[in-house]
Amino acid sequence: MAGILRGEIRWADLNPTRGNEQSGLRPVLVLSQDIFNVRSGTVIATALTSQPPKAGFPLTLPIESAALPKKSWVKISQIRTLSVERIGSNIGKISAEELSRVIDGLNEIIGR
Q1: End-to-end distance of the chain based on CA atoms, in angstroms?
Q2: What is the pLDDT of residues 35-74, one digit of tens each?
Q3: Which domains, ranges and CATH numbers included, belong to the chain?
Q4: Of 50, 57, 49, 61, which is closest to residue 99 (Cα–Cα)?
Q5: Global pTM?
Q6: Dihedral sign, Cα of residue 87, residue 51, residue 72, residue 63
Q7: How wide is the angle at C-alpha 48 spanned by C-alphas 42 and 50, nearest 5°?
């Protein structure tokens, strides 16, 4: 699938899963660069949730710039590499500022 862009929120089929992984058909935020998405046949993405967070930054961040039907949070700790075959339609796109905050949160979790 061509045209999956960094910062987009897309539907993705996350099944099958194991343990505490996010499952089912759900929105994900694409974090990988556009050229990676095209050339690798995969995307690096993190799950979104409409459930209020139980833990604060850097595990979850609110999404405010995309016009989503429900208040949503990025679950930074639920990052996955997904085949483009799992990726569905575009729901929206976050701002460059929000994307930068997500990347900063991810860097806090994995270290720089």
Answers
A1: 31
A2: 999 999 999 999 999 888 876 666 888 898 777 888 999 9
A3: 8-110 (2.30.30.110)
A4: 61
A5: 0.89
A6: negative
A7: 160
